[in-house]
Amino acid sequence: MKQQQLSIINIIPAALSLIVAISPTPAVSSEQEQITEQLCSTCHRVSNLKRSSGYSKAHWEKLVSYMVNNTNSQLSAELGEFLANKYPVNNKRASQVVDGDFKLQFNYWQVPTLGQRARDPVQGKDGIIWWVGQWGNILGRLDPISGEMKEYTLPAGTYPHSVTLDENLTPWFLGNKNGTVGYLDLDTKKFQVFNMPDENARDPHTGVFDHKGIFWFTLQHSNMIGKLDPKSGDIRLVSLPTKKSKPYGIKVDSTGTPWVSCNGSNCLVKVDKNTMALTEIKLPGENTHTRRLAITPDDMVYYVNSGMGKLGRYNPTTGKITEWDNPSGSDSHPYAIEYADGAIWFNESAKRPETLVRFDLTTETMQSWQIPSKEGVYAGLIRHMRMGNKGLIIHQTATNQLAEITWSK
């Protein structure tokens, strides 16, 4: 189905001609609305339009150009006019910014294939950045110095959710649609693929390597956690104790113990690295759910409470749980999170412009910034962030961009 969707993206310019034929004037019509909603729903929910912060005609045209390759200027103008009239600029998703001493610098790259939903970039010690295009079935490579990019087409049906690197800087991907985990052999440029041993393990999601080279990963809707030994190819799976916990993010602490966040329940999960026995830690609030987590050098477990708009910390030694309200409130939906340079960084994904928040671990205070996008287009969103060689490496799926964030005082 996704392959059909991607082909529709490529022929959208022809489909948009229907809008011109139905209404040669810029006035909004029910026909225009119906056709636009049909086209937009090919790739994402129509509610994305209704919930947007709106744009001017020029900025709507620019946003569409980030998503699809539309070279017909007349069609772009027609669509931009309709969207600007129907969804004008508004502040209903405005963020609350907290000032502070740090200043940020952003460096952006536009990936070659539009409509792919580029995501989850990770940078190796050699400086190379890898990403996956989930809807484009792509594994991508970026040299940030030269700007050179190369895209590899993954095995049919993979539709990867994430990519991570082993100690040899080999990129490993998680086949979210076909129940696989695999890697790209950098010498032969061929893919090695491992299939899940259980047909119920359908959707490998996010992965991380421990200190011994074992690959741990989550399977969100399958409600499982997996363990893969790359040397033998052996895969073990365990199910979470609470149904529909939706294991999402995963990190490893200094002892090599995996920790998992729950996107469907108010819990964190500690995994025994030897037996795979699971310990569930209940978090406060029935509406709590945690997209991702970060672990500091002293093994404190920080998490984003996406359901309630908070940053949380779990102390594994004492069992104490502490939470702080996000600057933009309970509906800010914090999503990605990372530890870097004495601070916890996370984004408020529901806000426009999307915001980045820095939580200072010493003072326990926050500073936040509205994330700039090219040419005034503030669509998100950051689903994963990781520390690179110089700063945070992020993505924005709606605009198919990767970025590096550095900071200074």
TrEMBL record:
Gene3D superfamilies named in the record: YVTN repeat-like/Quinoprotein amine dehydrogenase (2.130.10.10)
Pfam families: Vgb_lyase
Keyword field: Signal
Domain of life: Bacteria
Coiled-coil residue spans: none
Signal peptide bounds: 1-29
InterPro entries: Vgb (IPR051344), WD40/YVTN_repeat-like_dom_sf (IPR015943)
Protein name: Cytochrome C
Upper classification of the organism: Bacteria, Pseudomonadati, Pseudomonadota, Gammaproteobacteria, Alteromonadales
